[in-house]
Every structure is written in structure tokens, then in C-alpha cells.
Amino acid sequence: MQRVALADEKTWPTSQALIEALQTEPQKLSVDPVMLDSHGYKVDIRQPQLMVARQPLPGQIQGALVLRGEWTIEGYKWQSPLLERLPRNMALDTLDVELKEDGTGIHFTAKGKYYVLK
Known about the structure:
Layout: H1 15-22, E1 35-38, E2 41-45, E3 49-50, E4 66-76, H2 81-84, E5 90-99, E6 106-117
Antiparallel strand pairs: 1-2, 2-4, 3-4, 4-6, 5-6
């Protein structure tokens, strides 16, 4: 996974485009857009928040504000290649891997942050 760089902001997807990019086909009918679940592959996307303590006054900044949200993706070893295809505005903070005792295989939990423009 590559670093998130502000220089790439023009290529960052919007919040909605990010959700659509993370959905697999069975998840397209999901009724809860921030919790996508299909075949043991679960994506939880929390709403992005301002990275500054207060909304800037008009004229204080030039350009768009960057919002930061948190995400969690859970899945099994055979689904791990999906992590390589995450958009460039997503950063990986932690990756936990465990062997499930119920015989379902190797399970991972990836957590990180994503950035979008306001």
C-alpha cells in the first residue's frame, strides 16, 4: 500500500465513490452504506470529520478542506488481494492476522484512515 500524499488529491475519490469502490457485487444491494458485508468480507467506513478544531472563516484558507475518516476491513486470506487495490486516499494503520479455531481459515482485520476533500 502506498503513502497517502496531498499532491494526489485530484485523484482521490469522493466519500460516495470510495464506498462504491470498496463494494463487491453482492454488497451493491447493501441497505447500510457504511457497513458492507459479503462472504466474510466486511468493510466499515465511518463518516469523515474535519481535521481542524473549527470551521475556518471565509478567506482563511485557499482550496478545499481535507476530511479524515476511519475504516476497518475484515476478511479471509483469499480476500487479502483486495487490500492491494484500495484507493490512494486510504492509509493502513494496522493489520492483524489470526488463524480461526473454527476451521474457517486465516482471518485478517485491517484498520486505517481515509482522506477526502470537502
